């Protein structure tokens, strides 16, 4: 056996084939950049800071602020607004729920919320 064969053998998986890269696409799957705009969803994400006692007013203002932008985007789009209180308040419906709607699991949502909290109070 040559020196190179041993490393190839160690790198193969149970079926005798080399491991596939993490970015491999399944047969029949389309690369995202090749999707027509009608089949794409744009996620608009904004982290906003608001008074600790009046998050609803800031949420309404954010929706109004982005109305023109949302009308100008072709295809499907979703606006995710996550609010943090100026004192670092983390709101369940206004902070955690929007982050969860991005597809994050509960542990990652909490971890991200705590990082955003730390950023807001420093």
Give the topology, please:
Blueprint: H1 3-11, E1 41-50, H2 55-65, H3 67-72, E2 76-85, H4 92-100, H5 106-121
Parallel strand pairs: 1-2
Helix pairs in contact: 4-5
Taking the alpha carbons of the first and last residues, their distance comes to 60 Å
Please report the number of helical segments.
Answer: 5
**Rg from Cα:** 22 Å
What's the number of extended β-strand segments? 2
- The helix-strand sequence is HEHHEHH
Outline: flat
Which stretches of 5+ consecutive residues score pLDDT under 50?
Answer: 1-25
Kindly name the structural category: alpha+beta
Strand content: 15-25%
Physical arrangement of strands within the biggest beta sheet? 1-2
Helical content stands at: 40-55%
Biggest sheet architecture: 2 strands, parallel
Mean pLDDT: 75
